[in-house]
């Protein structure tokens, strides 16, 4: 089948979105591709934890709305997770704070300070010790012990109660700092508990021990003593403070990795599924890719096919993330793909690109017609600032002169301007917004355009309910005003949107125009009962403007 692609849509400065339909392995696949600047400056690639906790799940739109105050955001789903608890499978590291440890045999994605992506495997090493005594191994962080005996650490980011075991012993550490990697973190032993099932207090952590380590912990960690914890991520570069689990690796040094050996089941690697991936080009720009699957319109991809698609998109480094029903791409809380579950699946975390500059949402209407008919007469233009900035907002006429301007230093907020007066000149207007951040002087700019076109207006129907008699039809009057010569199309559409009758097609002049519809389709047969839409479009050098009104048709026997 031939490749089908729509033109790239600019979502915000430097960020474009494309939906492709491609033949891959002889079957159609719908690909959603986001191309973005590298991490740094006005852009931040960051992992986001659902609910800000290890336990629990959220949909991508909910996560994005929760962090909207930080910046304008695009993103995809993140790591694999346990569906019953939402616990991520691999590492979650944000600002150097560890919430979940890595899986040794699976790749993770790290984000370096200079914007490069690091795809590698990490080893977790942890220890705990009471002052004056020897150090002991720490097996896990914010995860039930998989193979006791052992000792695990639970922080506030766990988000629930510690596991319940009758013989478990727990030590509550007060004054415990954030779990930064490669540091010596000390708290005071407050209490010793038996059996687990505890909630981690604010500003504290809990060491949870089972088997022989429960006796050792209870013996050494006496109340009032200082206890120090250290966690390390071996092989993590020193300039990486954010990381998210994933896998398998897809592209290394510009070459597709076809046999990554990352302990994934053959069905995961070799069957066609919905897939999510992130990659980086040689110029530093980033790529998000979501492939739809498990449907008649999109077959999904195998691991090998996904890796080759990332190479085709120019990635020199790439890694897979969770797939299947989890595969989701969203912008500002709006989902761009069709999840294979048929509805959004709540996930453990996401990988988001934040834009910190000034943002102008797309105008609600591409065309307004301020003629007083109450349809598309006006709209609100907006700009959002997420950091204190000196802003310059301008509404520019078609001839290039400024119709309205606002300049000031503002705190983070949404600024808006309603437009739509009968005196507005016809043509293309521009909404130009600029900002300079006060703290660091970073400049950003965005422009949106809309058209003022009063060619068509005042669509009127003689009735909102029309009775039609089988074999005889009915009578509906349709009238509209046209302000200049234009190609006008008048059609009647069925409840499903299909055109059932064309009443006008061609050029007409200025003035009032009227048509009649007798309730019949193109084959001159009376239409069945339903709600039909009269749609009128007018096209000229200003573009195309459309009006529509509904009429309820009731078919009777006579």
Task: For this entry, give a set of tags.
4 helices; single chain; 558 residues; mainly beta; 8-stranded mixed beta sheet; elongated
In summary, what is this structure?
With 558 residues, the protein is mainly beta. Helices cover 6% and strands 50% of the residues.
Folded structure, characterized:
This protein has 558 residues and is mainly beta. The chain is 6% helix and 50% strand. Strands 1, 2, 3, 4, 20, 21, 22, 23 and 24 form a nine-stranded antiparallel beta sheet that branches. An eight-stranded mixed beta sheet has the order 12-11-18-16-15-17-14-13, covered by helices on one side. The protein has a five-stranded antiparallel beta sheet with strand order 5-27-6-25-26, covered by helices on one side. It is elongated and about 95 Å long. The protein starts with a strand and ends with a strand. The mean pLDDT is 96.
Q: Helices and strands in order, then pairings?
A:
Blueprint: E1 4-5, E2 9-12, E3 15-24, E4 27-36, E5 43-49, H1 60-66, E6 72-77, E7 92-94, E8 97-100, E9 108-112, E10 117-120, E11 123-130, E12 136-138, E13 140-141, E14 150-154, E15 164-174, E16 185-196, E17 204-210, H2 212-220, E18 226-234, E19 240-245, E20 249-252, E21 255-256, H3 266-270, E22 275-281, E23 286-291, H4 303-312, E24 315-320, E25 329-331, E26 334-335, E27 349-355, E28 367-368, E29 379-385, E30 389-396, E31 402-410, E32 413-419, E33 427-437, E34 443-452, E35 456-461, E36 465-469, E37 476-482, E38 486-493, E39 499-508, E40 511-517, E41 530-540, E42 543-556
Parallel strand pairs: 13-14, 28-34, 36-42
Antiparallel strand pairs: 1-3, 2-3, 3-4, 4-23, 5-27, 6-25, 6-27, 7-8, 7-19, 9-10, 9-19, 11-12, 11-18, 14-17, 15-16, 15-17, 16-18, 20-21, 20-24, 22-23, 22-24, 25-26, 29-32, 30-31, 30-33, 33-34, 35-37, 37-40, 38-39, 38-41, 41-42
């Amino acid at each position: 089948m031939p490749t089908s692609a729509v033109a790239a849509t600019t979502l915000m400065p430097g960020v474009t979105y494309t939906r492709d339909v491609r033949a891959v392995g002889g079957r159609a696949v719908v690909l959603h591709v986001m191309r973005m600047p590298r991490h740094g400056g006005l852009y931040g690639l960051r992992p986001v934890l659902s609910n800000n906790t290890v336990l629990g799940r959220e949909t991508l739109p909910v996560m994005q709305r929760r962090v909207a105050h930080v910046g304008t955001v695009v993103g995809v789903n993140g790591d694999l997770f346990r569906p019953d608890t939402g616990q991520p499978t691999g590492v979650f590291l944000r600002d150097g704070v560890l919430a979940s440890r890595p899986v040794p045999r699976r790749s993770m994605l790290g984000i370096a300070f200079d914007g490069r992506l690091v795809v590698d495997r990490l080893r977790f090493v942890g220890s705990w010790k009471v002052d004056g005594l020897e150090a002991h191994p720490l097996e896990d962080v914010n995860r039930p012990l998989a193979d006791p005996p052992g000792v695990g650490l639970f922080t506030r980011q766990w988000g629930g109660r510690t596991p319940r075991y009758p013989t478990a012993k727990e030590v509550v550490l007060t004054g415990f700092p954030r779990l930064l990697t490669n540091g010596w973190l000390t708290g005071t032993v407050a209490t010793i508990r038996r059996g687990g099932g505890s909630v981690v207090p604010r500003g504290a952590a809990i060491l949870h021990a089972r088997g022989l380590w429960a006796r050792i912990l209870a013996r050494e960690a006496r109340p009032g003593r200082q206890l120090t914890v250290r966690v390390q991520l071996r092989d993590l570069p020193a300039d990486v403070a954010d990381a998210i689990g994933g896998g398998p690796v897809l592209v290394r040094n510009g070459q597709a990795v076809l046999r990554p050996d990352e302990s994934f089941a053959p069905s995961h690697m070799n069957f066609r599924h919905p897939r999510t991936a992130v990659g980086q080009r040689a110029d530093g720009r980033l790529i998000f890719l979501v492939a739809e699957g498990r449907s008649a319109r999109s077959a999904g991809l195998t691991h090998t096919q996904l890796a080759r698609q990332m190479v085709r998109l120019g990635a020199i480094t790439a890694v897979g993330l969770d797939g299947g029903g989890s595969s989701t791409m969203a912008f500002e809380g709006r989902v761009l793909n069709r999840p294979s579950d048929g509805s959004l699946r709540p996930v453990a975390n996401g990988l988001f690109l934040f834009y910190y500059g000034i943002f102008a949402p797309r105008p609600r209407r591409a065309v307004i017609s301020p003629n007083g008919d109450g349809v598309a007469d006006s709209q609100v233009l907006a700009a959002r600032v997420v950091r204190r900035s000196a802003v310059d907002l301008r509404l520019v006429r078609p001839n290039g002169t400024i119709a309205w301007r606002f300049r000031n230093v503002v705190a983070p907020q949404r600024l808006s301007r309603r437009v739509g007066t009968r005196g507005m000149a016809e043509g293309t207007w521009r909404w130009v917004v600029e900002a300079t951040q006060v703290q660091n002087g970073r400049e950003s700019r965005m422009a949106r355009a809309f058209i003022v076109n009063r060619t068509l207006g005042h669509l009127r129907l003689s009735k909102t309910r029309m009775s039609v008699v089988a074999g005889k039809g009915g009578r509906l009057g349709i009238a509209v005003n046209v302000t200049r010569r234009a190609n006008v199309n008048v059609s009647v559409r069925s409840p499903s949107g299909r055109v059932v009758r064309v009443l006008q097609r061609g050029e007409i002049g200025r003035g009032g125009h009227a048509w009649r519809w007798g309730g019949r389709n193109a084959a001159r047969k009376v239409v069945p009962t339903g709600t039909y839409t009269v749609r009128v479009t007018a096209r000229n050098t200003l573009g195309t403007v459309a009006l529509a009104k509904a009429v309820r048709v009731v078919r009777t026997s006579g």
